[in-house]
């Protein structure tokens, strides 16, 4: 049987096409990932348990006997999943707020050594040493979990506050406050909240590089965004 002269050509052409396809797929994957991140960048989370606070109504200021801690979640990653923040200094979760993507909340805390917790798929923690009459900042940072987003608390240190990054974090988030239904939600889910705290706290306590807000990170007044031209 005579083999067609065109067969080797077709074989080589198929191999070339396969190589082209293999080289193209990674590029397409990168483009698709970039498009997804671009779309997510425009996504802000919402919660029925929180109400928006207009900028001209956000009159937060430190009190002589309290520290003001601002929790900000500027990232859109995991925007469909809510993060909830608690004070767990005495290992008994005290509900602070639900912090959705692109939102921030103000919390008045007793001075001294504190421990805060954020809940998503799991629990994570941040230590703090707070002085009365000072303002402190922390980021709620999302990451992918097994089934849904997980969150961590990242202290914002004093050296970061004059930076463009901080200006973006603050400017890209909107103020929210608890509605009465938020406290109801926390009470109804407290068993699950405590379970996550107990599951993850011991590992955090024994970490060598625990995130900590230091007393020196406190500011005398709430940050005022720069006026845009």
How many strands in all? 11
Question: Could you say which structural class the secondary elements and strand pairing correspond to?
Answer: alpha/beta
Tally of structural domains: 2
- Helix fraction by DSSP (H/I, runs of at least 4): 25-40%
Walk across the major sheet and give the strand order. 1-10-5-2-8-9
Q: How many helical stretches?
A: 4
Binned strand content: 25-35%
In round numbers, the mean pLDDT is 84
Poorly predicted runs are: 24-42
Distance between the termini: 81 Å
Features of this protein?
4 helices; five-stranded mixed sheet; single chain; 2 domains; six-stranded mixed sheet; alpha/beta; 229 residues
Tell me what the structure shows.
30% of the residues lie in helices and 30% in strands. It has 2 domains: 1-42; 50-217, no CATH class. β6 (112-119) and β7 form a beta hairpin. The protein has 229 residues and is α/β, with parallel strands linked by helices. It has helices at residues 6-41, 164-171, 180-188, 190-205, and strands at 50-52, 67-73, 83-87, 94-99, 103-109, 112-119, 123-130, 135-144, 149-156, 174-178, 212-213. Residues 24-42 have low confidence and may be disordered.
Write a compact overview of the structure shown.
This protein has 229 residues and is α/β, with parallel strands linked by helices. The chain contains 4 helices and 11 strands.
